[in-house]
Amino acid sequence: MLAYDPSTRAPLLIRGPQLPSGRRTRALVGNIDLAPTILDATQATAPHALDGRWILPFARNPRRRSLRPLLHETVG
Fold first, then answer.
1. Stretch 16-28: mean pLDDT
2. Which of 2, 5, 53, 58 has the smallest number of CB atoms closer than 10 Å to its CB?
């Protein structure tokens, strides 16, 4: 694992109701955002606060941008 552009540009595919098909966004998201997104999509709740954020607004509006930095690290 190297912190270079090709290793950070892994695609994330999501599909579901109220999500337009064929949309693409270049918004930066991380694994930390998956649990909040799944909870939001299923209208479920977590027993405690979660880190990360839901990413469905980025899927619905590809022009939406985030200035949030994400740490990309590995142990080696």
1. 82
2. 5
